[in-house]
Amino acid sequence: MSIGIFDSGIGGVTLLHQAMITLPQEKYIFYADVDHVPYGTKSSQQVLGFVDEVMQFMIQHNCKAVVIACNTATSVAAEEMRRKYSIPIIGIEPAVKPAVQESGGRRVLVVATPLAVQEKKLKNLVKRVDESHLVDMLALPKLVEFAERGEFASEMVRQYLEELLSSYDLDKYGELVLGCTHFNYFKDTFRKLLPDQVKILDGSAGTIRQLARVLGERGALEEAPPCKMDNTPAVQYFLSGRELVNPEDLERMQRLHQRLEEMRHIL
Ligand code: DGL
Question: Please, which residues have CB within 8 angstroms of residue 212's CB and are 6 or more apart in sequence?
């Protein structure tokens, strides 16, 4: 049985990439809901409907667990999906708690999509962990568009980020939390714009550790690498339900993994 991982688009490859490092013996179904990307500028009701459709797809494909590799979809839909479906559903949340703990009293900037910033879930999380009122939140809607166009390190990206970050006195900050899985593709530009003391945090490793824990508790982890006789690839990629089969599309996915591997080492 496979592990299902989905996002509105290519942001979810961040979690797939991490999962393939932590749990290399598993098989994966990756689903990018490109027909509906971006989620972050739509209404909660719309996103709930999209997520429900993807969940049904994952269940029809016999997944043993589903990772919602999207902070926006997690904040809008994770609880409702857990009520509706009985398979384990693991969501990603911005790493606000570790950021506050590690900031040494400096300020923390959480960047996310407009919908995630508006949603109660993120506000409640901040309220719970931010006793000293250190956290600021900033929506960066255009980064999802840049990512979906494959524009990761252009001058336009740099100008956009520079402009939005310019309203913050960054010398007062200790942590930048990436609260959208699409934002990992831009770590190199963030790094260039941030003072050295600002660390960049994201929730991918923690989310995949949680996935491993949940599957381990159920005795559902694969112990051996996928059987050699079995020709199904370790990852099947779907764009809103359509499987990617042609080599150019699959190569594009490989390039995203390469980009994320480079970004993974930027802190
Ligand atoms: N990658 C998603 C997230 O983590 C959402 C991007 C979007 O579709 O707006 O929030």
Answer: 22, 23, 221
Positive or negative CA dihedral for 39, 44, 49, 51? positive
∠ CA 8-79-37, rounded to 5°? 10
> If you take atom 2 of ligand 1, which residue's CA is the nearest one?
70
* Nearest atom, ligand 1, residue 69 CA: 4
CB atoms within 10 A of CB 114: 15
Which amino acid is present at 179? G
CA 160 to CA 105: how far, in whole Å? 28
- Report the C-alpha gap between 267 and 264 in whole angstroms: 8
Length of the chain, please?
Answer: 267
Ligand 1 interacting residues, C-beta cut-off 6 A: 7-9, 11, 37-40, 70-72, 113, 116, 144, 180-182
Residue range 180-213, pLDDT digits in tens: 999 999 999 999 999 999 999 999 999 999 999 9
**CA 180 to CA 169: how far, in whole Å?**
22
| H helix or E strand, kind and range, residue 72 | helix 71-84
Predicted confidence at residue 223, as pLDDT, reads: 84
Could you tell me the pTM of the whole model?
A: 0.95
